[in-house]
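Table S5 (text form). Sequence records supplied for joint modeling of the two-component complex.
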Amino acid sequence: MRPINLYLPESIAEATGARRALVGSAENITGLHLGKVALITGGSAGIGGALARLLALAGARVMMVARRESELEAARARIVGELEDIGFAGVERRVRILGGIDVANLDSLRLAVDETVRAFGRIDYLINNAGVSGAEEMAVDMNVDAWRHTQYANLISNYALMHMVVPMMKAQGSGYILNVSSYFGGEKFLAVSYPNRTDYAVSKAGQRAMVESMARHLGPEIQINAIAPGPVDGDRLAGLGGKPGLFERRGRLILENKRLNAVHAAVVKAVRRGEPVAGILGRLARNDTVQLSHDKSVPAELRELALACAREGDETCSWDRFLLTPPLAAKLTGRLKLGGWLIGTDWAARAETEWLLRVPPDDQPWLPVAQIAREAAKVRAGVLSQLHLGKMPTETEVAQATVFFLADRAVSGETFMPSGGLNVERSTTERELFGSPKAERLEQMAGKTVWLIGEHLTDYVAAAADALLGCGVANVVLMARTAQGAAAISSAVGDGGGRVQTLVIGEAIEDTLDEALVRWGPPTTIVSTPLAPLPDRLFEGSDSLDGAGFAEVVDTNLTHHFRVARKASLFDHCQVVLVSPDVPMGQGGGPAFALANFVKTTLHAFTATIAVENERLVHDVPVNQINLTRRVRSEEPRGDAEHAEEVRRFARAVLLAGAPLPDAEDSRYRARVYRGMSITV
Amino acid sequence: MRPINLYLPESIAEATGARRALVGSAENITGLHLGKVALITGGSAGIGGALARLLALAGARVMMVARRESELEAARARIVGELEDIGFAGVERRVRILGGIDVANLDSLRLAVDETVRAFGRIDYLINNAGVSGAEEMAVDMNVDAWRHTQYANLISNYALMHMVVPMMKAQGSGYILNVSSYFGGEKFLAVSYPNRTDYAVSKAGQRAMVESMARHLGPEIQINAIAPGPVDGDRLAGLGGKPGLFERRGRLILENKRLNAVHAAVVKAVRRGEPVAGILGRLARNDTVQLSHDKSVPAELRELALACAREGDETCSWDRFLLTPPLAAKLTGRLKLGGWLIGTDWAARAETEWLLRVPPDDQPWLPVAQIAREAAKVRAGVLSQLHLGKMPTETEVAQATVFFLADRAVSGETFMPSGGLNVERSTTERELFGSPKAERLEQMAGKTVWLIGEHLTDYVAAAADALLGCGVANVVLMARTAQGAAAISSAVGDGGGRVQTLVIGEAIEDTLDEALVRWGPPTTIVSTPLAPLPDRLFEGSDSLDGAGFAEVVDTNLTHHFRVARKASLFDHCQVVLVSPDVPMGQGGGPAFALANFVKTTLHAFTATIAVENERLVHDVPVNQINLTRRVRSEEPRGDAEHAEEVRRFARAVLLAGAPLPDAEDSRYRARVYRGMSITV
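The corresponding structure-token record, covering 1362 residues in total, follows.
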């Protein structure tokens, strides 16, 4: 018997839209996934579409689910046509679609699973591919709903689907869950910061962290892995349906943020000098660079900025004449309101309305087209220079590598990087506490106010309070979810000599922070801990943690910190410490332990990103993270003495990360060392 | 055309020795590597043999090279037979072998390349699979030749072959280099410690580091990646040719080392109390547990140990009666000699001779067989508990994943983990310097002696000397390769008030350290820097860095530190700091920069391993590492001021890592934080 190679007819390459036929490879996947049932979310385009095509070619039964029925139909028609041309029979039955599925909606996900089982009787591969790009703005400009939507669509959906299919896969004795993460979701033990995309980075890190921390709760029957594509030459990058592609969107964002941050900085600097904020905004509302640059009643910071902006334009745009657009103006007052800079002014109420008296014309772009292109080209060149092979893989190449990866029966808990060798800056998640803060840093805290946010982590928060009192702070403001929580922490704190204050957090954490701001002024340090313990449940048992329960974990442990840090990043002279959850002694190794490690890793994507973003803001607030759970169960405290030691270490870490930054001795390294770090105690 | 699946006849599974036929997968690789030429080192067994088989099945032309011709012939016969049975023609021509190839020998490697090209006209895939297990003993017991042999066989061979094939692959416009590393080679930015296998861990980390640091010097034509298998159920683990398998070897080693370390500790403790070492060894030579435990003239430490040992045995063995075997006795006196404990005694000369007066009988095992089995089972259970799927992959599974991985044209610079999800302890290579050493640690250095080893890194070494003089040390001993080097450093040091001494390193670094030991007593801190700069060459140009040149880099930057640390680990109250090479300003991004990152990563495997080993020794010497080169070119100093800042940071890091350990406040974490760390300054 001679070896048999099935060469695709040349025309197939064009018929399928693939850049080039993978001659020498594609023919080899025939039968590789014979009879397997794959549920692919977001299967109509991009990597998901390419995966659906190759899995079908490899003999699998494929259910593609997405929002738009029409796109799914087109994708299915292409695949069916191609396979029938090659000579496959029964393709119509093997390749199915289900439209109207929104991964941000848990009911919708239930339907996707039910329909797949109804069609094929089982699910062997769950491919969590669908996702959204996210808000594409800085954390300080992002609203909580936008953040939550990204987490639902990209992250909670993965868990919810997993939770639905796990019992079936366990019963089958096999199953494979593949999360399509991103290079910007980081790597094992390492976070990557992705400015302007913090919601996205967190969701992608979460997809990866889920794989790493939950694999042992799914084995031996079920494999769970992730792929983390870097930049991929295809639909997503080029822009879907006529919309601008990723690089162009980044280019726009860079220019818009540069302008917004400059205006924001000018306003804040003027207010710091004593100019009333209402007056500044009143003048800014005129939104005329020429007028602003000439009016002596306008604060100098704004005058200079207006002059610089007036020189920046060209004929194709209006951004030399108009300082802001209505959306940027709304972001500006949104920032000022969130940061407490509008308290006591009538702007506090009108911050979200359109307040510009003059707006750029509709018939001309505001942003200079040539500059967008230049910025986009820079981003693209930067990305390419980071790829060892100097080129991006295509969607088909990524899909092919993935189809091979899926054939491997020995790997679980791993993330595969089909784009390979990107050289981006990374930050270690498992940093150890060592060294002590210099005395002069601690001395700077004397007479200042610090805020501690917590509820059940009584001894940790109390120890931090004691340590801060020891530095001579004027006020320790304890904010707890309940009055009982506040009382418990308060009574565990040593003698504060009347310096310990308490507040009960109401419906919105932001209101409580505003109240503290009004009563005790801006804090030098904020320590944010989660307000509820982790559940000790995952996939097993009648009270297993379902999608809604997981959404709660995300809200308590990620969204909560986002909300605190987003606001605090708009304060002057503030350092923020975010704390990942603890697992009570004895629970090590169980579901709560896996969740704690999931949170720690995922949160670091936020910490690393906002730390970089904040360097572009006038307030320059460092954000760092302290982790209360170690990666390995055997390293967790085994008794009261060791727990007490951990509490002491936590308090020391709070001082290290929470005291004002050291002077510029190590200037170039300061940011790297003291910002966005993640210390495990 | 219907899909065509080539099912293998059932009998093939047995015929090939594979555990099970990979029905549903194996038939799919037909043609996947059609026409490609693969050179596989160590292709006769294990993963290499499985790879050769699958690559041949996938249509490649395969050259298997190894030492033993007979084994190669058997492997080839199996593959040829299998492929002919399936129906392939011309297999005899496609699958070739070359015996007598020793990867530890550069000439032998040249022959392998030449013969492959002669047979097939080109090389598409270089698969660096051959390797040795290494010395399998603690670093302090390992001799320099054994260490070097492991580096030649496992690491230098990879580079040497790469250097030979790169011009050909560049000319072809494509090529793929695959290094078969190991899970114990660590992961990107992370080192894994592998006690008793430091030579092996370093060589495996080097294979991986090479991929990460050199990929961009090989692209866009050439891909270079690694696979890092974890435990694999196959030849290597089970033991080749009737020899004991890995777990049994580990079990033996654990028992032997426990005994050796206990005797060693007893001797050292007695000497510390003032007992003359010669007398102790004289009594120990009797090697009779009963006698030793009853003789009041024997130091108490040894008496107690002998008593405990006498109770440990069973009828199957003699280790309750004999404290040591001749090999362990030689290791014991080897340690004492290396650590300077025999200076001035007549034992210094006879340390390596057989000195036991009484040795265990030949007709009975010394080690208790049941205990070996118990230890081996513990090791095996520990490994299995770390695998998410609770099972080890087979060699065929690993090979299949690799054959798929090799088909991917987009990945370079990456390490693929075909065993997936091992949960072992890792240590971060890119740790940042932060915090300062506590004053009480620095005060402990007053009046002590410190050793600084260096040559060309004048300003770094001088700054460290100044910082140490500032702590009030009694002597700074500068050891340089040349008298000029010593003079340059010495004159760059500030006023030492006669406290700065110099020594010129002769042929062997060990002799110089012994001289310093005699003249100024044991040091509290040793800072070891490489004695020559890195070459700024790799694969390109007429003066490219060949295998011999690379061997020199390994010797200067890895073997050198091994020699210093091995000896220093046998001193009392000593801290060791190993320094990875610097790249002069302006060279960033070039070959030297890649080499510096290669060294830094590879050295950390040593640092992390010896740090753990040393905790099992009576001297308990912490070993840490400082890196002078950052991972990204843009972070390197860009001018004199930034260089000066880096030098200051280096001196601070030397104090942090070099001062005596802090007290046990953070007891359980002390080892994690202060040992085996790798700080980049």
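Note: Chain A touches chain B through 87 residues (CB under 8 Å).
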